Amino acid sequence: MTGLPAGLAAVAGVLLLAGAAGTVATGALFGRAGADPLERLAWGFAAGLALLAGYVPISLTLGARPGAIALFVLTALVIGMAVLFRLPALRIPAPAHERGSGASRLVRLLFLVPLSLGILLYLLRALTEPMWATDFLAIWGWKGKTIFGAGLLPAWTWRLPEFSFTHPEYPLGLPFLYAGISFVLERWDDHAMALLFPALQVATLLLVAGWLRRRGAPPPVPLAAAATLSGFEPLYAAFTTGMAEVPLSFCVLLVGTALVDALEEEAGGSRRLAMAAAGAAALKNEGIFVAAVAGVLAVAAGGRPGRVRWRAAAAALLPAVAVLAAHRVGRGSLPLRDFRFGLLLEPGFPSRLGLGLRTILAEVLIPAAPGLIAFGVLLLSGRRSTAGDRLLALTAIPLSAYALLPAFCVFGPDWLARTAFARTAAALAPLAAAGVALRLAPLLEEMRDTGYEIREEMRDTGYGIRDS
Amino acid sequence: MRARRALVLLADAFLILLLLAAPNRPRELARRIRLLSHDAARDPALRRLDGSSAAFDRRYFFFLESARRRVPPTATGVAVWMPSPSEAARNLAAYQFAPLPALLRPRELPSGWVLAVYGPERPEGWREIARVSDGALFTREP
User: Which of A53, A385, B26, B64 could form a disulfide with A177 if both were Cys (CB 3.0 to 4.6 A apart)?
Assistant: First the structure.
């Protein structure tokens, strides 16, 4: 069993089983029929991945070797708990525009083509060779392979200063996930495991489409948002396969959508937010930051009762703090290797800040200017939407922080701006796409309602579009 | 105004479509498909040898993989000695030998570690335990 097809089939089997078990457990997150089916699948996949990653540290803490039996026991326990704490069955009304016409079915088909292409192209990019990015070899994959090979997390991985290049201070969620899959497969297959990344892309697209649909966005909007996102190569690239950005982008979207739901007192919103915040914090330090921003946004949310705001803030913050504490207990306090925040007080700080921002401008923003302008047009064309604007605030605050962060980098602001800004910013794309889609939804509703008027106006102004 | 807005949005959507399609160069996609079909039935090590992580020095990857297969089971770590160390070489060595700790040219060699030398150099005071592709494995003389 050394060929790629056999490896892919095995990894696909593990992911499907985990996703199925996770979907069963989503009764505690939504209640029966309390979600769009696509959205439920996405949360089910997230819950499945949490099981796959989570059973490794739990087994190690209990002194057992992780494997299929330990995973089965944990899954049975989680499903049992989910049944015990399931939410009441709530049926959400199907949006009126679900009953689509022939024309709208054609529009849907038109969006399904780029959506499918986006998924297939990422599948091709991700599977073309074993995961090869520097950060996979030196950080995420190395830790996962070490945990799997050693059957434990050896203390030398964070104690020996010679291994500081592996960033011992980073959260261990992704390495545990790699190790978790490998313990079930009983082998380390870093090529077949790349399948996890297109699967994460699909889960992200399901979440975008399902959540927008549940919120009543007119039919082309969820599909258009998913189709656009599927082709976003800066995130879904061969290079990012194996690194934490793709999983983080999924988790950040889970955090954002659950935050909006929790603030609107949707059933299970706080539970979903808690789960998503724990996942984000377990993946990357940026995830901890996003969970913290979500907590602050919850407290600052206008027009909501204090009880709701504080409950949402607690749902975002407490699980992230718990994940941080678990890492602290397991490994002790580990400083951030790349940053020194004391630089803020030094006289050279303004020039460092300037250098970082100039590098971002020259190497990321100017080359991406056409895309950013196109995105800006969509953003500004939309209508105000409380939910959409909350997602955009959750995008903008971390983005601003990423732009300032290079000034604190000990290896030089230009180095961090050049190597990390684009990909960490790209991980916010699903959140931004969902936010913009929500702002555009009312606009499309208006246009459809006044479709005849528009076509008339076009004809009168000589745009040459005929009323059909 | 509505018609103008609709046209602006349509043009914007078209621009986004073009920008999303731009990175997908047909030649690169064809190359990826060829690589995938060429490598699909091969051993995982050979697939990594074909891949980008070994591209900076494919002989070095061959050396690492060959050394990995010959490291004694009693070894507690691997020190890699090479004439021109680099970050890419360090990362690949660490990854290949995991779960054993592996370092490039460490100042000191902890007991139980083996030395993997890439190239023809043969260190004095060390006993060769295995010849590997483009190098050899050593332990300290007793």
Answer: A53
